[in-house]
Specification:
By secondary structure, this protein is an alpha+beta fold. The chain has helices at about 20-30, 70-85, and strands spanning about 5-15, 35, 40, 45-50, 55-60, 90-95.
């Protein structure tokens, strides 16, 4: 993303509002991420501000494709997807399969 001429800013490991993620978990019946009973913040890998007219703001979550076989990973991705949907922001899931080997 940093080499794209249209990229203005990239924020990494962007924390999601825990009030919203907890509510989404209640609505979906998915347990909120926690450590020793303490709710943990969820995050998105990249929040990108762009000069592109159709997508001035979009977000990217990056996962190794093997992680997509884990049901808990899928649950957390769904909460994240719904979070950004609620914000009317495009959310993309990217694996190593979408990145050219030369770039990797």
């Amino acid at each position: 993303m940093q080499w794209r001429a249209s990229t203005l800013d990239i924020r990494e490991q962007f924390h999601l509002d825990i009030t919203i993620t907890k509510q989404l978990c209640i609505e979906t019946g998915i347990s909120h991420p926690a450590s020793n009973g303490v709710p943990q913040f969820m995050s998105t890998d990249f929040v990108v501000n762009s000069k592109e007219k159709g997508e001035a703001l979009f977000v990217i979550q990056v996962k190794d494709s093997s992680m997509l076989r884990d049901s808990r990973t899928i649950e957390k991705l769904e909460i994240e997807r719904r979070f950004w949907q609620k914000k009317k922001t495009s959310w993309y899931l990217v694996t190593e399969k979408e990145i050219p080997a030369v770039v990797v």
